[in-house]
Amino acid sequence: MDDITAKRLVFAMLDADGDGVISADEYSARAERVARATGRTTDDPLVVVARTAGRRAWASMDADGDGKVTFEEYAAWAGADAFDTVCEPVLGALFDLADRDHDGRLDLPEFTTLRTALGNPVGNIEAAFAALDADGDGRVVRDDYLASVRAHVSGESSPVGEALYNSGTAVDPAHSGHPGRD
Ligand SMILES: [Ca+2]
Ligand SMILES: [Ca+2]
Ligand SMILES: [Ca+2]
Asked: Cβ distance 88 to 158 under 8 Å?
């Protein structure tokens, strides 16, 4: 998978309503969905951390400050540097919401709750979990999860990243620049 394809897959998931831009509400809804799915209250300190990191990430993506993140803005922004400074705190905070016993590991039901709330199809989640759980102990380690997503958005080969983000809707021709039939 090339770099631009990998970024398109992530963008398609972030652009939940498929209108071609990631709105602030669309992005912030992710943290709120994970909070709800994990049974946390809106004032839970971990929810506040995730919300704050998410707001910061979205603002840094909207380079021209017009309140919309286009694919061009996202593609120019996404990569290893942005991941390390902005994305990792967001994904780490969301992971922590799902990590009920705070041991830095998620079992399959917890991982499924997290990734479903973030918009992944369940079939992809199970494949990603299996790939991430290298030692087969039924737990996915926080650092392994973050490293795999980092590899995916950095354009490195990442089977886990592909499993997480590749879905039928993500490669919808209507959003990939091909002319439509209508
Ligand atoms: Ca949108
Ligand atoms: Ca913008
Ligand atoms: Ca845990």
From this structure: no
Residues of the chain scoring pLDDT < 70: 166-182
Q: Tokens standing for 177?
A: 């620049």
Q: Do the domain assignments include residue 148?
A: yes
Render pLDDT for 19-53 as a digit per residue (tens, 0 to 9). Answer: 999 999 999 999 999 999 999 999 999 999 999 99
Cα gap 84→86, rounded to integer Å? 6
Q: Distance, CA 8 to ligand 1 centroid (Å)? A: 13
> Can you give the residue range of the structural domain that contains 86?
3-165
| pTM, rounded to two decimals | 0.84
Give the orientation angle of helix 108-117 with respect to helix 122-132, to 10 degrees. Answer: 130
Span 146-156, pLDDT tens digits: 999 898 888 78
101 CA to middle of ligand 3, Å?
5
Strand, coil or helix: what is 23? Answer: strand
State the burial class of residue 157 (Cβ atoms within 10 Å of its Cβ: 0-12, 13-18, 19+).
Answer: exposed
Residue 182 lies in a domain: no
Distance 4 CA to ligand 1 centre (A): 19
